[in-house]
């Protein structure tokens, strides 16, 4: 890892576990930890990564055109 601190939530005085867990989930979501884990879970060759990026760009462009035509 790049030395980035992981999400950490400390229990506050009199706080329930459910509330702390809810805060933790929100913090993980805002820090995009899940997205990073998925991104690093497998290796893509540079060419494959470029193809995926181009495919996503085409998909966004089609969606934008479709949205503008409505």
Please specify the SSE layout and strand pairing:
Blueprint: H1 17-30, H2 33-39, H3 46-69
> Order of helices and strands, N to C?
HHH
Determine the number of helices (DSSP H or I, runs of at least 4 residues). Answer: 3
For the report, how would you describe the main beta sheet? Answer: none
Strand-residue proportion: under 5%
How many β-strand runs? 0
Structural class: mainly alpha
Taking pLDDT < 50 over at least 5 consecutive residues as the criterion, the unreliable ranges are none
Helix content: 55-70%
- Which value, in Å, is the CA radius of gyration? 19 Å
Overall mean pLDDT score?
A: 88
Shape: elongated
Distance between the termini: 45 Å
> Please, how many domains?
2
Oligomer: single chain
Question: In words, what does this structure look like?
Answer:
Helix content is 64%, strand content 0%. With 70 residues, the chain is an all-alpha fold. It has two domains: 1-39, no CATH class; 43-70. The radius of gyration is 19 Å and the shape is elongated. The mean pLDDT is 88.
Tell me briefly what this model is.
Helix content is 64%, strand content 0%.
Summary tags:
single chain, 70 residues, mainly alpha, 2 domains, elongated
């Amino acid at each position: 890892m790049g030395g980035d601190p992981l999400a950490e939530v400390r229990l506050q005085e009199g706080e329930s576990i459910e509330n702390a867990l809810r805060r933790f989930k929100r913090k993980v979501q805002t820090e995009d930890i899940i997205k990073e884990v998925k991104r690093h879970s497998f290796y893509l060759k540079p060419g494959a990564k470029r193809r995926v990026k181009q495919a996503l760009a085409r998909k966004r462009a089609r969606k934008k055109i479709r949205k503008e035509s409505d």
